[in-house]
Structure formats: C-alpha cells, structure tokens
Design goal:
Layout (H helix, E strand, L loop, with lengths): L6 H15 L1 E2 L21 H20 L19 H10 L2 E2 L6 H16 L2 H12 L5 E4 L15 E5 L2 E12 L6 E7 L10 E7 L5 E6 L8 E12 L3 E2 L5 H15 L5 H13 L6 H29 L5 H26 L16 H6 L10 H11 L10
Parallel strand pairs: 3-6
Antiparallel strand pairs: 1-2, 4-5, 5-9, 6-7, 7-10, 8-9
C-alpha cells in the first residue's frame, strides 16, 4: 500500500481540488430552483445530446489531465494505481459539487469498454484506444442487443464474414445508448453459425462513422430519443479492430456485462433522495401511509449503499462480485419502483397534469422510465437465475 493515501486524506485532497474547479452545491434554497429533471433515460434531441456530451467531455478531460480520473489505472494510461474503492470515494466528494451529469455513454466507455480492452486487447490496441477512451476524447457504445435475441445475447444474428484482412459486418442492433455521439461501437457478431451459439461469436470495434453504419433514433414514450437502433450494412472492419480471439467473443462479452452489473448498484439513488426531499417539502402534512412509504424508501437507500460497499469489498479482495452485483441490480430496480409508488401517492393528480409547477409533472419521466431497468443490464429473471445457480446451487436444467 506504499504511496497510496489514506482514504480520509484522499477525500480531503479531492474536496480541495474540486473546490478550485467547480461550484459547491448548496443545500439551502436549492429545493424549487434549477432543473427538476428526474428522467431515468435522458429525454433530449440530438442537438441537446451533442451539446451536453461536449460539456461532459470538457469536464472529464479536466479531471483526467489533473490526475482525478482513471484513478485505478496504472500510470502509463494516465492513472494513479489506486484500489477500486477510491473511485467511489472520489464520486462521493464530487456529488457535493455542481459538475455536469454523466450520461450513460461515459461510464460505458470508461468503466465497461476500456477495461475489456485492457483484458482482451493487443498491445497495439491498448496503445491506440485506452488513453483516448479514459480521457473521453473517443466514446464507445454497446452494439449488443438484437430484436430477435432479446436477453439471450448468445443468440445474436449479426454476421461477420472474413474477406482477406477485413471482416464484413451485416445486421441490426437495438436499444443502443449514445450511438449518435459515439466514436466506436463494440459489436457482438456471429462468425461461425455451424458451432454451438456461445462458441461462434467474435467481438469487433466498429467506427460509428464508417460507410454502411446507419443510426436511427427510437422514440421513447417520454418523448425523448436517447436510445437508437443501428444498422450495419456491409460494414468493413479491419482485423486489427477485432477484440479478442476469433470465436472467443462470448468471453469478451461476459467481461463487459460483469462490469455493467457492478455499475448498476447505484441506480436510482439520486431520484430516491429527490423523492424524499419532495416528501419533506410537501405543502401539507404527510398521511400515516405516506410517512411509512417514505421511511421504507429511506431505509432502502441505506441498504442499497451498503450493498454497494459489499461489491466494492469483493473487488478489493480480488474477487469477481457476481452474486453481490446481481443482488445490487435487483435491489436497485425495486428501489426505483418504490420511488415511483411514493411519488405517485405524494403528488396525486399533480403528477399527470402539467401545471408548470416545479418538481411535479417532471416525475412522469421517472415513472415511465423506471420499468426499463428491470430489463437493462440483464433482466430481473437473469439476475435471479444467477443467484439460483451460484448461491443456491440449483441445477441449470430443470429436474425431470
């Protein structure tokens, strides 16, 4: 642990640095002013997405250049070689400052794709991709899901056919966040249809501006278009942009999914905290049932944060926190549901009537978006299957 600062010392330094580059969020007078957005999935136009992405990139580059990003990475990649939980210590301090909200493509790039490249990439690929992605000069989206495959990623049909030193990709991906602003897409493709489905998969990094790549926004029921479908029509990808061995793409995909589930345990906490603030600022006394719901939600946020600490402890101990991550994901989606229940009870008709009042109708975006996280990042059913097999030791096939 030589050269690693004590946690309190690290947090104090982070707080001091943040104070030189960002404005502190003030608790007094904050309620009722500023943005009242509680959208689960960002609800914006392409122009708004590009503008916000540029603001976040500017902030992320400032962090990276001054040594407050890529904290767990080694020095050659701009990091400091700190234990995994130091990233959470930093985020806890940053939450007290007015910095840009990070949309999904940023954690996807820095916490999912970059680590996968570190595991599976060649030396040349690491040199080419890691620093630009950690600094967010280049952003990456996930070209995983397909309409036919559903939650079974191993059933992908997007084809990749070898032609000399290139691969030709043809297929259709869906539910892709950040596709409009991404530089790269991590595409899971079928390269051998003759073998069992888990063995015939290969992963590629695809330039999102390559000929044959078409991005079409998907209109959400909230009105926004933060998701996209991506068409790959004869897209040529050099073999140098293949990630991992041919036919080993399922293992590459699993390394990305594991990181995604680790990152999902904090889902919904900001909105749960905002719902409790709503209860505290309601211009009438709470009923007994409302008090009970609010107390329940408050306790859930504490438990969810404790689950997050267990995931971190597993990482510190050098273990892959599979079961802990699945519990965290399930717990987080339930927290989001109960946030919806509390807000619905508190606001009543004000929730569905756009009167212009701050902090009321905006909650419709949470209610409409929260159910999506029972699917995103691995469905609730998949998480329960993981727990049944890995914790309870139940067989994978039903006993007949």
């Amino acid at each position: 642990m030589s050269g690693i600062p004590e946690p309190e010392e690290f947090r104090a330094r982070a707080r001091q640095w943040l104070g030189t580059v960002a404005r502190t969020r003030t608790a007094d007078g904050e309620w009722g002013s500023g943005s009242d957005s509680v959208a689960v999935f960002d609800n914006w136009t392409e122009e708004q997405e590009r503008a916000h992405t540029a603001r976040v990139q500017e902030w992320e580059r400032t962090r990276y250049d001054q040594g407050w990003s890529a904290l767990t990475w080694e020095e050659p990649y701009g990091g400091r070689g700190l234990p995994a939980y130091y990233e959470q210590l930093y985020r806890a301090e940053e939450a007290a400052f007015d910095v840009p909200h990070r949309p999904e493509i940023f954690p996807v790039t820095q916490a999912l794709v970059a680590p996968a490249i570190a595991i599976w990439g060649t030396g040349e690929q690491k040199e080419r991709w890691l620093r630009p992605m950690l600094r967010t000069d280049e952003l990456a989206c996930q070209l995983f899901s397909e309409t036919e495959a559903g939650s079974d990623l191993a059933a992908v049909r997007t084809r990749a056919v070898r032609e000399g030193e290139d691969w030709v990709l043809t297929g259709h991906k869906v539910w892709t966040s950040g596709a409009r602003v991404a530089t790269w897409g991590v595409a899971v493709c079928r390269t051998d249809p003759a073998v069992r489905k888990h063995a015939g998969i290969t992963v590629f990094l695809v330039r999102m501006d390559a000929p044959g790549v078409t991005v079409r926004p998907i209109r959400q029921m909230t009105g926004g278009t933060s998701f996209n479908e991506v068409y790959l029509d004869g897209v040529r990808v050099p073999d140098t942009d293949r990630l991992g061995p041919v036919g080993e793409g399922w293992r590459v995909t699993l390394s990305v999914l594991a990181a995604e589930r680790l990152d999902s345990g904090s889902l919904g906490l900001d909105n749960a905290d905002r719902a409790l603030d709503l209860a505290a600022h309601l211009p009438r006394p709470l009923t007994g049932a409302e008090q009970q719901r609010a107390a329940d939600l408050h306790i859930r946020t504490l438990v969810q944060r404790l689950i997050g600490l267990r995931v971190t402890a597993a990482l510190v101990a050098g273990r892959e926190p599979g079961a802990e991550a699945s519990v965290g994901k399930l717990y987080a989606t339930e927290t989001m549901r109960r946030t919806s229940d509390l807000v619905s009870e508190l606001l009543g008709p004000s929730l569905v009537a756009d009167t212009g009042e701050w902090g009321t109708y905006a909650w419709t975006e949470h209610l409409l978006g929260a159910p999506g996280y029972s699917i995103a990042g691995g469905t609730d059913e998949i998480q329960r299957t993981i727990l049944a097999e890995r914790v309870l030791g139940l067989p994978k096939e039903p006993v007949r």
